[in-house]
Every structure is written in C-alpha cells, then in structure tokens.
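Worked Example 4.2. Consider the chain below.
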Amino acid sequence: MTFLSDSIARVQPSPTIAMTQRASELKAEGRDIISLSAGEPDFDTPDHIRQAGKDAIDAGHTRYTAVDGMPALKAAVARKFKRENGLDYTPAQITVGTGGKQILYNALMATLNPGDEVIVPAPYWVSYPDMVRLAGATPVMVPCPAETGFKLTPEALKGAITPRTKWLILNSPGNPSGAGYDRTAMKALTDVLLDAPHVWVLADDIYEHLVFDGFEFCTPAQVEPRLKDRTLTMNGVSKAYAMTGWRIGYGAGPETLIRAMAKLQSQSTSNPSSISQHAALAALDGPQDYIAESRTAFQRRRDLVVSGLNQCEGITCPTPQGAFYVYPSITGLIGRTSDGGTQITTDEDFANALLEETGVAVVFGAAFGLSPHFRISYATSDEELTDAVARIRRFCAGCR
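Applying the procedure from the previous section yields the following structure tokens:
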C-alpha cells in the first residue's frame, strides 16, 4: 500500500515550469541565461489597475467574498461578454476563480467520471491532459500538424468523437502554436458539434486580445448560439492586462454547471483574493488602452522572432495569428550533433543542448504533444529576443 494517491501518479510536473526552474538555477550559478520558456507578459500591470488594488486594501476590502466571485465583478464579467463577444449571461451563469487554470480544473472535476473522454487538439497547453487524468477521465489527443495550421479540422474532430466523449477543449489563439480559428474555421467545427449533442465545449479564450494582422477573434458560443447551453467560455485578466500574479480567471456557462463548479470551489480554495477581484473589476471596466499598446509590441516581437528563426539552418517557423508564442519545427536538425557533442534525436535533446550550450531556455515540443518542435515565448524585450535568436542561429550552424 503506497501513501500517495493513484491520481497523483497519473500526472507529470509541468514541463514549462521545470524548464523555467532549470534556467533560474543556471542563472543563479552565474550563467548568462535568456529564458523564453514562461508564458507571462513582461509588462507591468497598468497603473489604474494597480491603484485599484491599493485602494481596496486601504478601504478594508480584505475579507472573504462570495465563494466564486463578488457580485460586482460578476456583473463586470457579464458586461465584458456582452460588449466584446455579443454573449448574454446573468451573474448566476458566471464564476470567478483563482486564475483561468482553476476555472478549467473546476469544470473538468465537476463533470468527468472514469471512462469519459475529452478531445484535446495537439499541440496543447501542457495542463489540459493532466487535468483530465486527475478527474479520472481519458484525454484523447488529436494531432494538428503544421500542415493544418496547427488547427483541428472538422474531419479530425468528427473522427475523434465517440459515445464516451464529454468535452472538446478548444484554445484560440492557442498555446503553444499561436494558431487562431477565424469565423469560417470555427463554424466548420461547431457544425460538427451540432451533430454530437452529448459533447460540450470548453473554450479557453485567455489570449483573446493578443491577435495580429487584423485577425478577428471569435468564440464558439458566439459563432453558433445553439451551442451556448453546452459551452463553458473561459477567460481571465492575466494575459490581456499583464496580471498573471493577481490570479483571476472567470468563466460563463449554463447555471447548473456554474453551481457545480462553485460547490467544488467552496471545498477547495473558496473565494479568489478580494484584492485581486477589485483590481480585475478595474481592468474590465476601466480604460482599455493597454491592450492595443501591448498588442503592437507583441506583434513587433513576433515578427522579429519569426524572421530570425527562419534564417536558422534546420528550423522552419510559421507565423502565428496570436498569443505570444512561436512553435518552430526542427525537422532539419534531427539526426545532427551539436558543437557540444549532443546528438539531437528528439526536440527534448535540442532544448536541453540549447540551454546548456547557449543559455537560451525554450520548451521542447513533446511537452505539448507534437514533435519535433519547440516553443518560444516572446514575452520579453526586443534586445533579449535579438540576442536569443542570434544564439540559436549560431547553435544551429554548429550542428553537423
């Protein structure tokens, strides 16, 4: 009899966190490290949002709130969905959690049973499959290669649906690829789902505002209103407003699901930070200038990184529609040996050798379910990105 649970044995530590930690350790040893592994904006939280947090402390808003969010914040979330997505929700159909991750976790834990299946397009955010496993269900990974733009096709979706399928997780624009579904592509998927009434949609829209080149964001319940009653639309303030550490996410869906998620949250974390909720209220209802400013900076950085990587021998880097990641292929480097003597047989070999030999930390593609690729987060300064790309170019040139 072992002390640890079977469920904890089914999951792995986050590879992105592990790579970030390894980079921090090397930096502490005095190495010159550029970490491009964490998905976190490098900008400060906008002034008016920070001030709202300070004001909340000074006003004594430091006590428990309603389990899944203050009524005022739920009302602001409802206004956001109406204003930006054309979706009507009542406060009873909205939940607020400690980050978007908790919203996703609560939804899966509140609905999944052993034997259930969840469709997860690959490449995927590393936490999706392990959340499904923790709930006792089975993640069904569907490969979405570069040839499809890293996007799920209607044919692949239809082929993955079984009588056991309970959820489809759809992340647009996506982590790690930055791929986004336009209205035509999204409608093609929702048409398939209309013929599968037992399948619910978990829409992870956390990168909604980080889209480029005129790409128009859309979300499943917006494109196909008939799916609204079996869709949970998740979002948050972390990426849009540089508030990763504030830990506020929110979701909207059918009231029965929202109540179940609140019940689960009442026995785990209870309410999110009261201070952070007041700051999130200011973010959603206050000036939105920061969003356009950060989008401009991220698009410039994307172009810098894509251009630089496509000049590296053995690397092919598609141009993503959104988020702040690129997901290049290293097909041309497989089978080669680095200057430092590492034989590159996998993308994990590549990422480890790149960190040890050049000091650039990236995340290997196998962590996201699609190889041979690697992910770069370009949420850092232009200067660091220019330096990192130059180091990667030298590393690739040295592979023989």
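The radius of gyration is 21 Å. The mean pLDDT is 96. Compare this with Example 4.1 before moving on.
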